[in-house]
Design brief:
This protein has 15 helices and 17 strands. The protein is α/β, with parallel strands linked by helices. The protein has three domains: 22-262, 2-enoyl-CoA Hydratase, Chain A, domain 1 (Alpha-Beta Complex); 265-401; 407-463, Nucleic acid-binding proteins (OB fold (Dihydrolipoamide Acetyltransferase, E2P)).
Length: 476
């Protein structure tokens, strides 16, 4: 009961837990240190800014805060960006750079990030890098929301067509509504920064993708640079206009780079906010509790199982869930537990295995591979649980079929010694005790006897000729 109470309290704690601080203070690293030679200055019209407006220059001594998003977009990523914007504002940074590499992510988290970028008082630069990175699906929306969009050579972006939770196209009127909403969103993001609306919309409606060079040539991004220091040189002198404030000229060529990383707790939570790990935590956490329940006193499996389940509850709270899939997983756990209580010769175990596989396939609703559970992992986890339950049940069956060695049943077939003549009654020494006994044939004192049955406090015995068991020591 103590373990169950810990799980309930832990689940409540997770539900009430506020978002943790998502980054640790980083020591500023120097940038390229090269003075601006003016070659990076561009036409103000390219930035969508009226050239007649006199911009206010930003001081060169201001740092540039750099964030790194290199995984799927989920609530923790959105919190990380919010904290990064707050850090940039608090330090009066010249700009905030988001180094982006993502296959996509959750729509709600993506909209939260784009809204945070648009409302940021500090100019935000989204840089798809390093080489080989991508800003697909949700990443394309984040790129289009930036004040300055940049990519490294060898990267790509686009493929932002909305799809259903299982990755399939959304059919009918609902599909049309979702597509038009997504298209309007990307037009709004791209249009605010003077980018190519037609191609931005094509990335949504036609799933078009673009290389860094294609995106630069066709007006989807403003800069192509191999790394962050080169990016800061390239954007130095550019004019950025934030809504509700005067346009400013960026001074970043000689700025210090202040890299802000996720703190250890937030990074740990980000790592476990993964469907693969969520399945492992829930499955093996429950298995640990079953082992503790079936073998009271082991303690370690119960404690580890409770910790795993609480972490699993947290993971479930930040990922998109399908309730039918979750119900199937719960049913699987109930069936596995029922096998310990009412042995069904494997029927409950097989039913639980099928339910677990179906539930794990259905439970996470996302078209992005990074937010789906791998089928191989599902089969491996299910097979492991079935194997462990089979081993535990085999031990239970062996224990139930083992001969009884205590109580009245434990005396049957025991061998002892006649302490007096039995003709037909007398005394025998069996199982370390002196008993009244009765024999159907005479038995002399000192002869070996074997218990045939027990009637109340009297043993019925018979003489034995062979050595059946070690003779009990006779007290003096």
């Amino acid at each position: 009961m103590g373990v169950v109470s810990a799980i309930v309290l832990g689940a409540v704690w997770v539900a009430l837990l506020p978002a943790p601080a998502l980054f640790a203070q980083a020591t500023p690293d120097p940038g390229s240190g090269m003075p601006n030679d003016g070659s990076a200055a561009e036409d103000a019209s390219r930035d969508g800014v009226d050239s007649t407006v006199s911009p206010a220059p930003l001081s060169a001594v201001r740092p540039v805060v750099v964030l790194t998003l290199d995984d799927a977009i989920h609530p923790l990523a959105a919190e990380y960006v919010e904290e990064g914007v707050a850090k940039a504002k608090a330090t009066n940074a010249a700009a905030l750079v988001i180094e982006l590499s993502t296959p996509g992510g959750l729509v709600t988290s993506t909209r939260k990030i784009t809204s945070t970028i648009l409302q940021s008082p500090v100019p935000v630069v989204v840089f798809v890098g390093p080489r080989g990175a991508q800003a697909a699906s949700a990443g394309f929306y984040i790129l289009m929301s930036a004040d300055i969009a940049a990519m490294a050579p060898g990267t790509n972006t686009g493929a932002a067509h909305p799809v259903a939770g299982g990755g399939q196209d959304i059919e009918g009127d609902l599909g049309t509504k979702v597509e038009q909403d997504a298209a309007a969103n990307i037009r709004s993001l791209a249009g605010q920064h003077g980018r190519n609306l037609e191609l931005a919309e094509a990335a949504v409606l036609e799933s078009r993708s673009f290389t860094a060079q294609e995106a630069l040539d066709q007006g989807l991004i403003e800069v192509m640079a191999p790394d962050v220091p080169s990016l800061l040189e390239a954007i130095d002198g550019r004019t950025v206009a934030k809504a509700g404030s005067e346009p400013v000229v960026l001074s970043t060529a000689t700025a210090l780079i202040d890299r802000v990383e996720m703190g250890p707790i937030a990074r740990f939570l980000a790592v476990i906010s993964n469907p693969q790990i969520a399945l492992l935590l829930i499955s093996f956490g429950t298995l640990g509790l079953y082992i503790e329940i079936s073998n009271p006193g082991l303690i370690f499996p119960g404690v580890i199982g409770a910790i795993f389940l609480i972490l699993g509850f947290y993971t479930m709270s930040v990922l998109p869930l399908d309730y039918a899939g979750m119900a199937l997983i719960v049913l699987a756990l109930i069936l596995f537990a029922a096998e310990f209580i009412v042995p069904s010769f494997g029927i409950f175990t097989v039913g639980g295995a099928v339910s677990l596989v179906l539930g794990a396939v259905m439970v996470f609703r996302s078209p992005d591979p990074a937010l789906q559970v791998d089928l191989g992992l599902i089969l491996g986890v299910t097979g492991s649980i079935v194997l462990i339950i089979g081993l535990l049940m085999s031990r239970v069956i062996l224990a139930r079929n083992a001969p009884v060695v205590t109580g009245v049943e434990g005396l049957t077939r025991e061998v002892g010694t006649a302490r007096t003549d039995l003709d037909p009654q007398g005394k025998v020494f069996v199982h370390g005790e002196l008993w009244n006994a009765r024999a159907r044939q005479p038995v002399a004192a000192g002869d070996r006897v074997q218990v045939v049955s027990v009637e109340g406090l009297t043993l019925e015995v018979r003489p034995v000729e062979d050595h059946v068991a070690s003779e009990q020591a006779i007290p003096t």
